[in-house]
Design brief:
Oligomer: single chain
Distance between the termini: 52 Å
Low-confidence stretches: none
CATH class: Alpha Beta
CATH architecture: Roll
Largest sheet: 6 strands, mixed
Shape: globular
Radius of gyration: 15 Å
Helix content: 25-40%
Mean pLDDT: 94
Order of helices and strands: HHEEHEEEEEEH
Strand order of the largest sheet: 2-1-8-7-4-3
CATH topology: Nuclear Transport Factor 2, Chain: A
Length: 146
């Protein structure tokens, strides 16, 4: 695939998330795709894994959007930086357990590394600033600078 083709797939992928049109999003995912949410040590696969990841975020932050700040794309994939924004009105499943809804808004930096083959996303690794997210949710206290 060309870089331009991959950029279109990426734009469609994030647009689908922002519109919460996950059935359309499944069409962008390879049947054997691998998903890793690195900070939560979560590994999922295939179209069902995709749905678990995106529906999990959408149920925790129903107003969530991805505001892309940078894309570096090649013929085999891309790295995408974005700010994830949303209000936590649903439960958040974290490695430390369930975090009940706080009603608080977050603006969290994310970075995703994606592999694309034959027009489909075959791998996605998500990295995000959990410390900032947990502070914004009020789950951990802000550090006092001296």
């Amino acid at each position: 695939m060309s870089v331009q083709d991959n950029l279109k797939i990426l734009r469609d992928y994030y647009d689908v998330f922002n519109k919460k049109d996950f059935n359309k999003g499944k069409n962008l995912i390879d049947d054997n795709a691998e998903f890793q949410v690195v900070p939560f040590n979560m590994k999922l696969s295939g179209k069902e894994g995709y749905l678990q990841v995106v529906q999990g975020w959408a149920s925790t932050f129903p107003d969530a959007i991805c505001d892309i700040t940078n894309i570096i794309a090649g013929e085999e994939g891309a790295v995408v930086e974005f700010v994830g924004r949303g209000t936590q009105t649903g439960k958040l499943l974290s490695p430390e357990g369930e975090i009940l809804p706080t009603g608080k808004h977050v603006d969290v930096p994310f970075c995703e590394v994606l592999k694309i083959k034959n027009g489909k996303i075959t791998s996605l690794h998500t990295y995000f600033d959990t410390s900032t997210m947990m502070k914004q949710l009020g789950v951990v206290p802000e550090m006092k600078h001296q």
